[in-house]
Amino acid sequence: RYPIMAIPSREQVAKTLAGVISDVLRKGQDVRVPGLGTFRVHHQVSHVERRSNGEIVMKPPRDVIAFSADE
């Protein structure tokens, strides 16, 4: 007889998938999920931004996650 294994919940699967994607993106690699799309890190350079109240703010450079869906 085989031991009974617990079936992971959708939340556990989603958290695990997000963790794996996050780890790969930190290494600078793209992540392609067939049937869903591709995750990649996009670097935004620093820039000056004018807010609606007229205030001018310098935005620092940062890395953001970009997603492009499969067709």
Please describe what this structure looks like:
By secondary structure, the chain is an alpha+beta fold. Helix content is 24%, strand content 38%. The protein is built from 1 helix and 5 strands. The strands form 2 sheets. It has a 3-stranded antiparallel sheet with strand order 1-2-5, with helices on one face. Strands 3-4 form a two-stranded antiparallel ribbon. β1 and β2 (37-44) form a beta hairpin. The radius of gyration is 19 Å and the shape is elongated. The protein starts with 9 loop residues before the first helix and ends with a strand.
Task: List the main descriptive attributes of the protein structure presented here.
1 helix, alpha+beta, 24% helix, 71 residues, 3-stranded antiparallel beta sheet, elongated, 38% strand, 5 strands
Helix content: 10-25%
Strand fraction: 35-45%
Strand order of the largest sheet: 1-2-5
Major beta-sheet overview: 3 strands, antiparallel
Number of strands: 5
Structural class: alpha+beta
Shape assignment? elongated
Average the pLDDT over all residues and give the rounded result: 92
List the total number of helices: 1
What's the helix-strand series?
HEEEEE
Distance between the termini: 45 Å
